[in-house]
From TrEMBL:
Protein name: Ultraviolet-B receptor UVR8
Ranges of residues in domain RCC1-like: 219-470
InterPro entries assigned to the protein according to its UniProt record, in alphabetical order: RCC1-like_dom (IPR058923), RCC1/BLIP-II (IPR009091), Reg_chr_condens (IPR000408), Ub_ligase/GEF_domain (IPR051210)
UniProt keyword list: Receptor, Repeat
Stretches forming RCC repeats: 72-124, 248-319, 320-370, 371-424, 425-475
Gene3D superfamilies recorded: Regulator of chromosome condensation 1/beta-lactamase-inhibitor protein II
Coiled coil stretches, renumbered: none
Pfam families attached to this UniProt entry: RCC1_2 (PF13540), WD40_RLD (PF25390)
Origin superkingdom: Eukaryota
Amino acid sequence: MTGRGSEECAEMEECREAVVFMWGYLPGASPEKSPILSPAPVLLPASVGGGDAWKDVCGGGCGFAVATSESGKLITWGSADDEGQSYLISGKHGETPEPFPLPTEAAVAKAAAGWAHCAAVTETGEVYTWGWKECVPSEKIACGLVTGGSFQNDSTGKQNSLLNDQVSAKDQGSNLTGGAIFQGDNKRAGEEIMKRRKISLAEQEPETSIPGDDFFTISPLLVKLGDGVRITAVAAGGRHTLALSDMGQVWGWGYGGEGQLGLGTRVKTVATPHIIPCIEQSALGKGNMSSSTQVSKLLGSCVKGIACGGRHSVVVTDAGKLLTFGWGLYGQCGHGTTNDQLRPTCISLSGTQVEKVAAGLWHTICVTVDGRVYAFGGNQFGQLGTGADQAENLPRLLDAPNLESRHAKMISCGARHSVVLTEDGQLFSWGWNKHGQLGLGDLTDRNTPFRVSIDGYQPKNVACGWWHTLLMAERPPLSSKTV
C-alpha cells in the first residue's frame, strides 16, 4: 500500500507518512530552471484540501509532473510559463502542486502523460484526455495512410517537436560513465531515419512554441467508449494512447503511422478509439499457428499490462506473454530486426513469464515474475543498462552486479532513462542524465544501474516523466525510529 490519510491510523505514532520525491527537469519547480540533481521532497500544500495526502505518482510529460492524492485529485506541477505546450497541459501549475480541474466529480485513480498530451482514469472507469488534438478522440476519423515507406505530415501540416527529439540524439551530447557513447552511431541512426521515413525537418516547430486552438485541446474531454466499458489503466506515448479495460481488452487512438495502434496498416490518425486485437489475431513470430484457439491458449485470455513508447506499444498478457507493435528502427519491438511491427506480435523469452513492462522513447524494459530485468531497443545513452552503448533488437537480461540477487518489483522509463525498484526497497537508475533525471547528484550518464539514495524512507512506487523522475515513498512510523 501507499500512503493513507491520518484517519486510518490508530495512533499518530503508527501512521506512515506518504512522501513524494522529484528530480530531473521540472523548470517551474527549481530556481532559474536548474536541474534537480538529487531527490527533493514535494510538499502537498494545505490549499489542496485539509487532511489530504499523496496517493501515488504518475510520472508526467515533458517538463511537468503528475501525481494523485488520497481524496482522488489529479495533482500537477513543475512547468514554467515559457514552456509552451507543457505549461498548458499542466494547467499552468509551476512550483506549487495544485489540483488539475476535470469535468467530473469522480475520483482520479490513475493518469499518464505523453510528449504533449495527458489521460486520466477515474474510479468509475471513465477516461479523460487533453493536449495535442490528434491525441484527443473526436467523432471524425482521419485515415491518412503512410504508404511506400514515406512518413506523411500529421493533421497540423507540421511535424511536432517529438520528431526532432527522435533524430537529435547526436546533438544532445553525452558524458557516459562505464562506457563510451559514440556520436557517430547516433548520426548514422539519424541518417537512417531520414532515409527510411523521408522526414522533412525544415517545417518543425520549436519545442517551446505554443500551439493554437487548431493544434491543442486544453480542456479535458471524456473519451467515448462502448457501453459498459470500464477502463482501469492508461498509457501515453509520443502521440498515441492505450487504455486497458477491466475485461483485459486494449483500446487505442491517436497517431499510428508506424503500427503503434496495432491495426495492421500505417494509419496516420485514428480519432475514434478502437479495440486492438492483442490475442485473437496476434502473430507468434516465425512460428505462426493457423488455429486462433491454439494462439489464444498460448498467449493467455486477456491483457493485464500496457505501456507506450515514443512510437511503439507493449502489452503483457495474463499468461506472462510480451507483445509489441509499432516503430522498430532501434530494435525496441524486440523481434531481432529493426522492422516496424504493424500488429501485436509475441516476443520469445524462452518460456519466461513477464510481470511488468515500461517503454521509453526508443527502448523497452520488462520485469519477469522471478524479478529479472530484460531490456532491448535504442541504447545511445546507456538507457538499456547493459554496460555498453550498442542497441539490442532482442531482449537482453541485465546481469549488472548491483541487481544480482535482487528481485525487481517495479520499472519505469523516461525518454532515455530507466529506473527499477527492487523488493528490498532499493532504487536504481541508468541512462541519459543531462537534466539530473537519474537522481545521482550529477549530470553524468550511466550505462549500468546505480543506486539512488533515499535514506530514511521506504520507496513504494516510481514513475518517470519525459526528463524527470518521481518517487512515492513512506516515512517509517515514529514508533519504529531509533532515538
